């Protein structure tokens, strides 16, 4: 028996590969499917099934491309309707994977078709359960993403019954969820990416709820607004998409500076995926910075319009990686990349913009003497409430794509931006630069450094 969890940090997403006696199955695959086929080749196994736990909202699944490449059947839970052929499983239906058996457990609540898959070993004993977005380590899936006739409280009631079914499984059964910490598909997710039913019955707030009413209250209160790309990805997963190979062929066009500028003039958005530090030292004016070495896909999905052509500036050799990671969240509209990167832009004599970065000590020295300083904290509201610089204004990064969020910023103000560590604040700086705000500074090290800096007064969390 071979079970592999394939975890993608920037999406907080887990796919799974199962193999036994020459038969393999994949659960919740990403859009780039080479890894699963390579594993099958190593195990000398045929991928016979692709199991989907639900219509994912936070990434585009690889179900169609993987099925096309392998001939595997795509399996969804009860009630599923798609624009392409799938096997709609019955509650309790079983599938053989070599000497293993996978049993369907319909668990609506996150979405109507949400389904868990219980894997039994060769003796028939329950071994692990793939819980999708129904049960996470420390939490459950949010019930407000469906957007149909059933409101979130009704969906939460369905989720209560579904969690109750999972609680009946033996305590030693391993829990393999679809997401880990940082995912917007739930709240209070723990730091681990696997657990057991017994551990969750002791520590998961949703499993500890004393009754249905308390469960619904806890699950529905304090939910953040879902990222704007969620409904787009859910629709793509239901209706289908262009094969990734075709997307790569269309997108990986090396554009000389002149051609790159021509595309810009036609309205294409420039996305610079280099590190915040490299971006700060010089970038194509108007470019948006979202570094690849962070939660790239999440912020791309939250800040880039789906209906706009995108031009890339990347570190040399990372062009294909960027296109693939954009495709994971539904972007098939990359028009090409800057041939030679920023070096070529500079050598062509083109102007480059920059962001001035300062350390926390410099902000501490300027604060008492400059009445026009405005500290912008671009972290999430919960992070801000957990402690912030006195006088700082919370302007969460996810709101900055809306120009209305910047209405209160005055031209005479000197803006100092920070997040927790520096990744998000550079994204914010690039957004503000695009909107015409140039009197700004990025505070290196973010709040982690600021709270340790002499001369910076921090407001602690409310008791």
UniProtKB/TrEMBL annotation:
<dbReference type="InterPro" id="IPR051682">
    <property type="entry name" value="Mito_Persulfide_Diox"/>
</dbReference>
<dbReference type="InterPro" id="IPR001763">
    <property type="entry name" value="Rhodanese-like_dom"/>
</dbReference>
<keyword id="KW-0479">Metal-binding</keyword>
<dbReference type="Pfam" id="PF00581">
    <property type="entry name" value="Rhodanese"/>
</dbReference>
<protein>
    <submittedName>
        <fullName>MBL fold metallo-hydrolase</fullName>
    </submittedName>
</protein>
<feature type="domain" description="Rhodanese">
    <location>
        <begin position="369"/>
        <end position="452"/>
    </location>
</feature>
<dbReference type="InterPro" id="IPR036866">
    <property type="entry name" value="RibonucZ/Hydroxyglut_hydro"/>
</dbReference>
<dbReference type="InterPro" id="IPR001279">
    <property type="entry name" value="Metallo-B-lactamas"/>
</dbReference>
<dbReference type="InterPro" id="IPR036873">
    <property type="entry name" value="Rhodanese-like_dom_sf"/>
</dbReference>
<feature type="domain" description="Rhodanese">
    <location>
        <begin position="264"/>
        <end position="354"/>
    </location>
</feature>
<dbReference type="InterPro" id="IPR044528">
    <property type="entry name" value="POD-like_MBL-fold"/>
</dbReference>
<dbReference type="Pfam" id="PF00753">
    <property type="entry name" value="Lactamase_B"/>
</dbReference>
């Amino acid at each position: 028996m071979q079970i592999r969890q394939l975890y993608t940090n920037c999406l907080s997403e887990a796919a799974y590969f199962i193999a036994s006696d020459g038969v393999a199955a994949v659960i919740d695959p990403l859009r780039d499917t080479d890894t699963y086929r390579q594993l099958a080749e190593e195990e000398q196994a045929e991928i016979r099934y692709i199991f989907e736990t639900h219509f994912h909202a936070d990434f585009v699944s690889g179900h169609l491309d993987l099925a096309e490449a392998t001939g595997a059947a795509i399996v969804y839970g009860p009630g599923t309707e798609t624009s392409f052929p799938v096997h709609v499983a019955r509650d309790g239906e079983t599938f053989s994977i070599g000497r293993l058996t996978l049993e369907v457990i319909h668990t609506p609540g996150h979405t109507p078709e949400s389904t868990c898959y219980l894997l039994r070993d060769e003796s028939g004993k329950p071994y692990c359960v793939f819980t999708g977005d129904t049960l996470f380590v420390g939490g459950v899936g949010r019930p407000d993403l469906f957007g149909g006739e059933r409101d979130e409280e009704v969906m939460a009631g369905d989720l209560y019954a579904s969690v109750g079914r999972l609680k009946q499984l033996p305590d030693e059964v391993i829990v393999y969820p679809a997401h880990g910490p940082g995912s917007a598909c739930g709240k209070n997710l723990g730091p681990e990416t696997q657990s057991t039913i017994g551990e969750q019955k002791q520590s998961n707030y949703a499993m500890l709820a004393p009754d249905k009413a308390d469960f619904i209250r806890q699950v529905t209160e304090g939910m953040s607004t879902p990222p704007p790309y969620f409904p787009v990805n859910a629709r793509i997963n239901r209706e289908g998409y262009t094969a990734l190979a075709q997307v790569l062929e269309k997108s990986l066009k090396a554009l000389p500076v002149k051609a790159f500028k021509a595309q810009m003039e036609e309205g294409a958005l420039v996305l610079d995926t280099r590190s915040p530090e490299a971006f700060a030292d010089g970038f194509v004016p108007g470019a948006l910075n979202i570094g690849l070495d962070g939660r790239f896909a999440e912020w791309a999905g939250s800040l880039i319009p789906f209906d706009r052509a995108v031009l890339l500036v990347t570190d040399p050799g990372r062009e294909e990686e960027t296109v693939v990671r954009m495709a994971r969240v539904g972007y098939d509209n990359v028009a090409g990349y800057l041939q030679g990167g920023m070096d070529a832009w500079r050598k062509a004599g083109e102007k480059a913009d920059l962001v001035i970065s300062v350390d926390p000590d410099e902000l501490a020295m300027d604060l008492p003497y400059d009445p026009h300083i405005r500290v912008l904290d671009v972290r999430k509201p919960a992070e801000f409430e957990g402690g912030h610089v006195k006088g700082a204004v919370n302007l969460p990064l996810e709101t900055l794509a809306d120009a209305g969020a910047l209405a209160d910023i005055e031209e005479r103000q000197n803006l100092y931006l920070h997040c927790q560590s520096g990744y998000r604040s550079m994204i914010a700086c690039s957004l503000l630069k695009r909107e015409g705000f140039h009197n700004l500074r990025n505070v290196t090290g973010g709040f982690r450094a600021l709270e340790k800096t002499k001369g910076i007064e921090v407001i602690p969390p409310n008791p």
